[in-house]
Design brief:
With 261 residues, the chain is α+β, with helices and mostly antiparallel strands. The protein has 2 domains: 139 residues, Roll (DNA Polymerase III, Chain A, domain 2); 108 residues, DNA Polymerase III, subunit A, domain 2 (DNA Polymerase III, Chain A, domain 2, Roll). Helices cover 18% and strands 39% of the residues. It is built from 5 helices and 16 strands. The strands form 3 sheets. It has an 8-stranded antiparallel sheet with strand order 5-2-3-4-16-15-14-9. A 4-stranded antiparallel sheet has the order 1-6-7-8. Helix 2 runs antiparallel to helix 3 and helix 4 packs antiparallel against helix 5. The termini are far apart. The relative contact order is 0.16.
Length: 261
């Protein structure tokens, strides 16, 4: 019956509820939701993993589709410090939640999770969500352990260069190539039907030269949610993922897996 399918309401009792500023939750959703999987067979990746790290006083959101990962940490209210929990919030519920959060200027919301249900309270409005049941992969294993090369670039300049070069990339793979050499980063694509595109950026880099391939859309998605003027690219070698961080927010991270060239 409909009543049986309806999720049970979590009890927003003291000690179970996490207060969070509306602007913080909105930003956390924006910086992770793009990396969720749309493959329904990988249902445990069809949402964002929310983790309450009580001891560290952090609230964390992580999303991945197996090709890229988005991650953000924010500090929790001191009262919520003892709460530990982890849930997977479905992509559709997150979209509704973001709409609710952005609707007006309410300062704070309350989050509560119990079993397979989640509850968000904003003033007199309550949003109830059915959570994804399943195990979220160990995302810590995906986070690169080594970053040999760190490059700081204007975020908008890099994004525009990738966007222009991607116009000639393959419709299917969206593959572009990044050639790194002392003082230079060249973004290029090659399409037998359309020709080649290439753009060069001057960078402060003195390391070894190497080339690495990426899906342009994944890079652009990660760059599109960065509000910082500058970003830091972290690279190790041509087989390792790229890390993208805003220079003014070290608790935000995007990781994109490389492609074979």
């Amino acid at each position: 019956t409909v009543a049986e399918e309806y999720p049970t309401l979590p009890e927003a009792a003291p000690g179970k509820t996490v207060p969070i500023p509306a602007t913080v939750l909105s930003q956390m959703i924006e910086r992770t939701m793009y990396a969720t999987s749309t493959d329904e067979t990988r249902y445990n990746l069809n949402g964002v993993y929310l983790e309450l790290l009580g001891e560290a006083g952090k609230i964390r959101m992580v999303a991945t589709d197996g090709h890229r990962l988005a991650y953000i940490d924010r500090t929790m209210d001191a009262e919520a410090g003892a709460i530990k929990n982890s849930v997977i919030i479905p992509r559709k519920a997150l979209a509704e939640l973001k709409r609710l959060v952005d609707e007006d200027d309410a300062d704070e919301l309350e989050l509560c999770f119990d079993g397979n249900s989640g509850l968000v309270k904003k003033g007199g409005v309550i949003l109830v969500m059915r959570l994804i049941e399943g195990e979220f992969p160990n995302y810590r294993q995906v986070l690169p352990k080594e970053t040999t090369h760190r490059i700081i670039l204007p975020a908008e300049e890099l994004s525009q260069s990738i966007r222009r070069v991607a116009l000639l990339s393959s419709e299917r793979s969206r593959a572009i190539r990044l050639d790194l050499s002392p003082g230079s980063l060249i973004a290029s694509s090659n399409n037998p039907d359309l020709g080649e595109a290439q753009e060069e950026l001057d960078i402060n880099y003195e390391g070894e030269s190497f080339s690495i391939g990426f899906n342009a859309r994944y890079l652009l998605d990660a760059l599109s949610v960065v509000k910082s003027k500058e970003i830091e690219l972290g690279l190790h070698d041509e087989l390792s993922p790229i890390q993208i961080r805003p220079t003014d927010d070290t608790d935000t991270l995007a990781v994109v897996m490389p492609m074979r060239l």
